[in-house]
Amino acid sequence: MARIGLDAYLSRIDTLISENSLEQALYHCFYLLRQFPKFLSVYKQIGRIYFEMNRLPAAASIYSRILSAEPDNFLNHLTMGLILENFQLIDQAIYQTRAALFLQPENKDVIAIYHRLTTHKKGFAEPRHYENLLTGFHAFSAGNYEKALEELSKYQAKEYQTLKLFYQALSMFECNRDDEGIQILENILSRKPWLQTALRKLAVCSNQQNTLRFSEYLHKLTELNPAYAEFSFENNYIHPGKKYPLVIYQEWTGFQNSRLRTVWQQPGSKIIESGIESLPDWLNLIPASDLLYNEEQSGEENNGATVADLLQLFTTDRKRLLPEEDAFFQKDYFQSQIPERTKAIIQPRPVHQDEQPVTILENEPSKGLDDAFDLLEKSPL
């Protein structure tokens, strides 16, 4: 079994996607997700695959999680807007696409999509208070941080508050108001604990003053990207290293590979459920974002459905089969690969006074784990 760097594995998955081998790429993504259940790059690949396969409920579930960690990336909002448009949730699609427009106000593609969405709404008029957000974000991207603070401070509406506060805090750091910026980012992280850029900024601020807090931030960053195991500091941010951990590469066999799916269906084995139709809800995943839509903004529902209703639809009812034994990559790789060797249990029957009771044979502990290690030692790497 060959071992390759995690970055090389991601590159191979990218190649599969570009070759339209989407199902194969998806199995590889799920294989990695069980080892690194919060690895953001894998989420992005899975989201891209679902979107190209037109599995839109699954894609929406993925992007709602990506937004929890990366709401400052316009492409995440834009893609979520396109997904919501397909469900005819126009208000919610406009809400997401407008966020992309705030972050990329001069992007012609974003402008075109936003214009197309707003034409679905008769008599649509852009609320004037959004001008402060648009101007503030534009000033931030231009490096005019004092102007960004001035405009963002004027914005008091309930919508997009996380984005507003986030960029307000980043502007404060640029204006040497670090204590205020730290306080805002810590407050945001108390509600959105996986916001990656906030973690990167606060890791720098806590590196010297609070080593325990720094360890907490670094641990979360490493979950989002294992390359943070070796990090560096540059331009007041912590950056991941270039060295990724080695993982076992699972060759595709042309059919549903049992190792990629973590399913054993041999006699006496235990089946560990793992389809690819949606994310396994028993993994320790990035939580779904509540940044999808603020229903208080319009006071109305679109065709009787809110984003909260839609997310409920995205949530799978997949059975939680043996989650504690999904040794696959979370606890013990080999235990999940070796079928249990179990002797049949003889059921008891009523015993008469003149006969000896039937002996019930207990499960014999499996030696499969030892066999797996022996096999590995003999296999060329």
> Over all CA atoms, what is the radius of gyration?
25 Å
Assign the structural class, choosing from mainly alpha, mainly beta, alpha/beta, alpha+beta, or little secondary structure. Answer: mainly alpha
Mean pLDDT across the residues is 80
> Helix amount, in percent?
40-55%
Q: Could you spell the SSE succession in H and E letters? A: EHHHHHHHHHHHHHEEEHHHHH
Low-confidence regions: 259-273, 295-304, 316-352, 357-369
Strand content: under 5%
CA-to-CA gap between the ends? 5 Å
The count of helical stretches stands at 18
Can you tell me about this structure?
- The chain is mainly alpha-helical and 381 residues long.
- The chain is 52% helix and 4% strand.
- It contains 18 helices and 4 strands.
- It has helices at residues 6-18, 22-33, 40-52, 56-69, 74-86, 90-103, 108-118, 130-141, 145-154, 161-174, 178-191, 196-206, 211-224, 258-261, 307-314, 327-330, 333-337, 368-378, and strands at 3-5, 231-234, 237-240, 246-248.
- Strands 1-4 form a two-stranded antiparallel ribbon. Strands 2-3 form a two-stranded antiparallel ribbon.
- β2 (231-234) and β3 (237-240) form a beta hairpin.
- α2 (22-33) runs antiparallel to α3, α3 packs antiparallel against α4 (56-69) and α12 (196-206) runs antiparallel to α13.
- The chain is globular.
- The model is unreliable at 259-273, 295-304, 316-352 and 357-369 (pLDDT under 50).
